[in-house]
Specification:
Layout lengths: L6 E6 L2 E7 L9 E7 L7 H10 L1 H8 L9 E5 L7 E8 L7 H17 L4 E4 L11 H17 L6 E6 L2 H16 L10 E3 L1
Parallel strand pairs: 2-7, 3-5, 3-6, 6-7
Antiparallel strand pairs: 1-2, 1-8, 4-5
Helix pairs in contact: 1-2, 3-4, 4-5
């Protein structure tokens, strides 16, 4: 599954957090996260890849749930994907503009939905960085901060994966994982993550 760079891992409490370079749609996890618009149309980017591999039933089920407020998330079946569910994390509206606040809220919402589905594992793409054009390093920092904070508060998730398409995204998320694990909520240093 991983590309030439392998994987970066840390443990937050009892949850393994991994950053991998590879295809999100090929992961056999409880849920994969879709970078969604508020109407849940699945045209390009991650959404398009999920729809192509998983089948049109994912988009049909998703659009029946829309529109969804930006920052929220909803779950659907995963069609022909090896995952059980797709969590549609809404990072933008029809204007295709996103922000740090939208990405932060959508990440938080996706994690809550994953918990409510009682899945053991969830895999994220780089939310907002494709069609939304949000800077990769900032998205990585925001998403990893939210994931680590969620896991430190207590979680039934056993694994959270950040599956990135290319080496630049992998590098940004691997560095962000290290930073997020080394910071507490008030900006201090903490040993709350273990290296694997």
């Amino acid at each position: 599954m991983t590309g030439g760079l392998g994987a970066s891992e840390r443990r937050v409490g009892s949850t393994r957090v991994r950053v991998v370079q590879g295809d999100l749609t090929a992961l056999a996890v409880g849920a994969v996260v879709n970078a969604a618009n508020d109407r849940l149309w699945m045209g390009g980017g991650v959404a398009g890849a999920i729809a192509r591999r998983g089948g049109p039933e994912i988009e049909r089920e998703a659009t029946a749930c829309g529109p969804v407020p930006i920052g929220d998330a909803v779950a659907t079946g995963a069609g022909r994907l090896p995952a059980r569910y797709v969590i549609h994390a809404v990072t933008m509206g029809q204007d295709l503009v996103t922000s740090e606040g939208y990405i932060r809220a959508a990440t938080r919402s996706a994690l809550r939905v994953a918990e409510s589905l009682s899945v053991e594992s969830v895999a994220f793409p780089a939310l907002g960085t494709g069609v939304g054009g949000f800077p990769l390093d900032r998205a990585a920092s925001v998403m990893l901060q939210e994931a680590v904070a969620h896991l430190r508060a207590g979680s039934a998730l056993r694994e959270v994966i950040f599956a990135l398409y290319d080496s630049a995204a992998y590098e940004a998320f691997a560095a962000a994982l290290d930073r997020a694990c080394d910071q507490t909520a008030d900006g201090g240093r903490e040993r709350g993550c273990a290296s694997c």
